[in-house]
Amino acid sequence: ASCVQHRLVVRDASSLQLLQLYTCLDQIQYIEWSSDSLFILCALYKRGIVQVWSLEQPAWHCRIDEGSAGLVASCWSPDGRHILNTTEFHLRITVWSLCTKSVSYIKYPKACQQGVVFTKDGRYMAVAERRDCKDFISIFVCSNWQLLRHFDTETQDLSGIEWAPNGCVLAAWDTCLEYKVLLYSLDGRLLSSFRAYEWPLGVKSVAWSPSSQFLAIGSFDEKVRILNHVTWKKITELDHPATVASKKTIVYKEVEKSPTVDTERLSFPPTRELASSLFSTQSKYDISQVPVSLQYVKPVADRANPKVGVGMLAFSADNCFLATKNDNIPNAVWIWDIRKLKLSVVLEQLCTIQCFQWDPCQPRLAVCTGTSRVYLWSPAGCMVVQVPGEGDFQIVSLSWHSSGDSMVLLSKDNFCVCYLEREEV
Amino acid sequence: MGDWRTITVPVLSSDSKNILSYTSEKKTSPTSMNSQVLRLSLPSSKNMHSFFSAFCTEENLEQSISYIDRELTTLGFPSIYAESKGRELNLVSIINCMNELLVLQHKNLRAQEEAEMQHMKLGSDMDHLQNCYAKLKEQLELSKREVVGLQERDRQLQSKNRNLHQLLKNEKDEVQKLQNIISSRATQYNHDMKRKEREYNKLKERLHQLVMNKKDKKIAMEILNCVGRADGKRGAWRTDKTEARNEEEMYKVLLSDYEQRQKQLLLENAELKKVLQQMKKDIISLLPPQKQKPKEKSEDGLVLSDQEEDIGDLNKENMWELSCETVREQLTNSIRKQWRMLKNHVEKLDNQVSRGHSGALNEKDVISREDHELETEKLELEIQQCKEMIKTQQQLLQQQLTCDDDTTLLLQDCYLLEERERLQEEWRLFREQKRNFEKERKSFTEAAIRLGLERKAFEEDRGTWLKHQFLTMTADCNNPNATTPSSEPDIRLVKSASRQRKPPSLLSTPISAEPCQTSQYIAQNSVASEKPTADNMPNLWVESDDKEETE
């Protein structure tokens, strides 16, 4: 599904054939599929309206109007029948039910980067709240929206919460002014609290491993600390120095290949293909000899939210690799082998990394840097895939299909689907 | 001529010019010879003649001779004059004196040479030493200067060090101050933040109120038709039951997660324990048998064996009981001990190897590598031989087991012979016993025959006695005093019976003490009218015996 202005276009994933076309009232800011893929919600933040469309019954429609309360965020509940709208200024979260037309309110939600999280099995929802200058977490049962637990957290300013994939532990971390990660059990007990250091800027990103065994915490001091689920103590620190010196890491460097031009075939006026091939640069990967010094960007000292520290963390689906990005070294992706807790690969790109995502089935990482190329890495090697086409297609973000066979590459105005062929065994 | 004053002993000098001057002077003034020092030098061939002519000329011959004589005598040489104090010169003595003088001269020359050599050597040594001295002095100077320089540097460095320490302290203080400042600012910011947040909350509340109060009709949900729930169930009312159920479900989820984790941990634990046990066994097997400190080691060994037994027992028992503290501690402690022992052993071996390399083979325990290798070779040879022997023995055994029929038959025959001999023995015994039994039977039959005869006789006697008695009774009717004779015949009969019985008893074999008794018993039996049965047997025997007798 994709939206263009005020139209919602639904296509088939394997053939990109147009299936449905819906028209909304105003420009759509956000769309989301329901968990059973039967409905799509389109949020129009400016108007404060959420429109829901059904795939099975194109005639069915639903419109939720928040009115003067305004709309800041909207999302589905895991059962696919409730919509949670966050009103402006985070006044409240309204839970609209599509089955019963009933409404529930959650008061005092917290305005933080990740305030509402659902467990993987969709049973419980944790909401970060703030009352009287104190942070609280409420755990709701998604089936009937009953409050299960409500407890306060020892944080200054709760910045985010995340469920472990097994649904039994909730990680909560404090604002970047204070390094504090708290771990709560499902029933609200504080299991453990982790604090690496006191004064420098703290936690930037957090990720759970798919087996819930490890919690990776990326912080502003360019390090990732990994906690284990048995003792909740740090088992290792992964550092991101500007010089990679270890002999065992492979450094792939993206090198530009100058395009070969067949001077004989030049014709006037130059055809489009020729023009594009002249101006588009090919690139490939080269293995650089260790030690390699990476491009280091010194952060501006007196600005808030500096581009320092580990800003992106992702575990691979098989729990074997961890991909990180250090914002100081914005062109490199660091891939760590979790079994050995060592740096195994560094991908050095020509441009700043915009986004990377692991394949949900295999240990395959797709990286995009804002160029028209998508980079794939797997333990077997890495490759550069050029998006064919005219003009520039600057990939800003990408998203894998849940089967791992294809992925969507998004640029500002367009998107394309990249299909990966399965190897014939 | 001038007066001869004592001439001083001339100083050796290599200056021939002086001699020339002297000789020239000599000619001018002979008296000056007295005051002048005669310089005897190693005469060069040129000045020989002049020198010799300087002392003795034709004029002062006598004086010079007497002078020479005086000198020689003072030196201990014999006089050159002849014995008479005349002017005759003793040529022989002169020659001898000359010879002696020459010898002396040679000796002196040699001594002189040696002295000169020594002098030169000493001179060169002296030079050398002076050079050394000079050099050492220089070096000493240099080192003194160096020392001074180093001292200076040391002082500088120390002062630098002190400065740096001071700086460090200052920096630390500054850092502390800054931290304090940061913390105070942080608290201030927090306070301000809280204040602002409260304001903000108030605004939000106000806004919220306003929004809610407006009764905005727009806040509504327009839906075409209600959609069924994803799982098809109906909505439930919020009741206490549902709350309780929620709690239950939550706890169930948590518990299942914990159980899963615990299972995993148990599995891990069990595996690790297995590995530890194996390691322990391996370590124990690696360690050599302890000879030194038997007490301690045996105690350890006993303790260990106890522990091992305990752990072995526990292993055999329920596995889950191994999770208790004491057993875990025991296992880890025992492994630590064993590991320490192994470490010590390896260290000892290392020391031995290092000592062996350095060549100190004094200790008995140390075996040099070559010896060790030789021994290992020997052992290997032995092992080979033993193996071969075992192989051959096995082959032989195999042959024996699967050998051909002759040998088996022989073997079997051997066994049979043994058995036969045994059986023969038994047969012999059996036959002996049979013979004994026969003998006894014979005696029995004889006794029985005799008994029968005796019974017959007894019956006959009884009959006669009764007849007699009857006759006497009828006779005694006529005669009333016949009571006593009735007893007599009894007695006589008894006596006769006994008498009759006695000889057969005498005749019978001594073994027949019993047969007598038996015959009496048989006799009684027969009297007791058990004749037919009792007599059957003896009759049979009697018959057979009679048959025998008749035969």
Automatic annotation (TrEMBL), chain A:
SMART domains: WD40 (SM00320)
Species lineage: Eukaryota, Metazoa, Chordata, Craniata, Vertebrata
GN (gene name): Wrap73
InterPro entries registered for this protein in UniProt: Centrosome-WD_assoc (IPR052778), WD40/YVTN_repeat-like_dom_sf (IPR015943), WD40_rpt (IPR001680)
Protein name: WRP73 protein
Entry superkingdom: Eukaryota
GO CC annotation terms, alphabetical: microtubule organizing center; MWP complex
UniProtKB/TrEMBL annotation, chain B:
Coiled coil region boundaries: 126-213, 255-282, 369-396
Subcellular location(s) per record: Cell junction, Adherens junction; Cytoplasm, Cytoskeleton, Microtubule organizing center, Centrosome, Centriolar satellite
Top-rank taxon: Eukaryota
Annotated keywords: Cell adhesion, Cell junction, Coiled coil, Cytoplasm, Cytoskeleton
InterPro entries in UniProt: Adhesion_Centrosome_assoc, Afadin/alpha-actinin-bd
Region annotated Disordered, chain positions: 525-551
UniProt keyword NAD present: no
PANTHER family tied to this protein: AFADIN- AND ALPHA-ACTININ-BINDING PROTEIN
Protein known as: ADIP protein
Native source species: Struthidea cinerea
The gene coding this protein: Ssx2ip
